[in-house]
């Protein structure tokens, strides 16, 4: 296997592990809200985890803290995990117990997500061109966010100005 393929597989694996970690952190909260769903809120926890983590990090970054980095993300995720552990210790870890009939639904939902995640990664890996719609602009905005430690980040076209539109959507 070539080095690029191994790096891509490592990135896909790390992304999946990060998403499952967020899902575990937010599952007790979503289970208390969506516990009547067949998966006891497991699938909703991933959506809540991504959305709330991104929104909170985005808002902290706009306050001037250098959170838009790997270290900032690790510190923030550690604080989220600590908060979740303390909250669950206080209320009891019984909320993490899964009923037998929910296990099958959770496993199927996770299998479906993983299959689609790998399929989309595979398709984008074989067609990474920036040849349609606004992909070129999206690529520029995302790269600008990745290079910046602080938010709001500078606009790639207007020197010294900040990106003032589509900010959260690209973040």
Estimated radius of gyration: 19 Å
Number of strands: 0
Major sheet summary line = none
User: Which class do the helix and strand fractions yield?
Assistant: mainly alpha
Strand content: under 5%
Mean of the pLDDT scores? 83
Helix amount: 55-70%
Shape label: globular
Low-confidence stretches: none
> What oligomeric state best describes the polypeptide chains here?
single chain
Spatial gap, N to C terminus? 32 Å
The SSE string, one letter per element, is HHHHHH
How many individual helices? 6
Q: How would you describe this structure to a colleague?
A:
By secondary structure, the chain is mainly α. The protein is built from six helices and no strands. Helix 1 packs across helix 2 and helix 1 runs parallel beside helix 3. The mean pLDDT is 83.
Features:
mainly alpha; single chain; globular; 171 residues
Summarize the structure in short.
The chain is an all-alpha fold and 171 residues long. The chain is 70% helix and 0% strand.
